[in-house]
Amino acid sequence: MSVVSDPIGDFLTRLRNAGTAGLAEVRAPHSRLKEDIAKILHREGYINGFKVEEVDGHRHLIVVSKLANRKSAITGLKRVSRPGLRKYVGATEIPRVLGGLGIAVLSTPRGVLSGREAKKQNVGGELLAYIW
Predict the structure, then answer these.
(1) What CATH number is given for 7-72 in this structure?
(2) Domain with CATH 3.30.1490.10 in the chain
(3) Are 78 and 16 in contact (CB under 8 A)?
(4) Alpha carbon 12 to chain centroid, angstroms
(5) φ, ψ dihedrals at 121, nearest 5°
(6) CATH topology (fold) of 77-131
(7) For 41-94, what is each residue's pLDDT tens digit?
(8) CA dist 104 → 3, 55, 68, 70, 85 (Å)
(9) CA-CA distances (angstroms) from residue 95 to 32, 64, 66, 87, 117?
(10) Residue 97: which residues within 8 A CB-CB, separation 6 or more?
(11) 26: closest CA among 77, 72, 80, 78?
(12) What count of other Cβ atoms lies within 10 Å of the Cβ of residue 43?
């Protein structure tokens, strides 16, 4: 078993690769942060759903991709804050992604939120990723 230094980056890479390959499901090791990101992606319409499955005492997050003509609804994503360089934004500094067509994912004191939700709640935090 290998140790991943950036589990969120690994999760986003798995989503990107599955979308490029046209796979219907993505399996990743479970964490509460990854599950919260999957909830945001489901709420915003980028995936069809997700579930948590336990195999041999290890929990896995299974994400069901939203595909149309073997193309994923997620056309691109970018990890912003990473272990070597954290990126924090205030409530007024939350960026728009592709002119409002994409979403920013933030880890805030009120939980993991999309950029729109964070602006509504007037809260900033760590800018995890851009998804479009």
Answers:
(1) 3.30.1370.30
(2) 77-131
(3) no
(4) 6
(5) -85, 0
(6) Dna Ligase; domain 1 (3.30.1490)
(7) 999 999 999 999 999 999 999 999 998 888 888 999 999 999 999 999 999 999
(8) 27, 32, 23, 25, 17
(9) 25, 28, 25, 12, 13
(10) 103, 104, 115, 130, 131, 132
(11) 72
(12) 12
- Locate 29 and state its tokens: 């090791």
128 or 73, which is more confident: 128
Q: In the chain, which segments carry CATH 3.30.1370.30?
A: 7-72
Q: Are 47 and 38 in contact (CB under 8 A)?
A: yes
Helix H, strand E, coil C: the string for the chain is CCCCCCHHHHHHHHHHHHHHHCCCEEEEECCHHHHHHHHHHHHHCCEEEEEEEEECCEEEEEEEECEECCEECCCCEEECCECCECCEECCCCCCCCHHHCCEEEEEECCEEEEHHHHHHCCCCEEEEEEEC
Note the pTM of the prediction, 2 decimals: 0.92
Q: Which two tokens stand for residue 104?
A: 């920013």
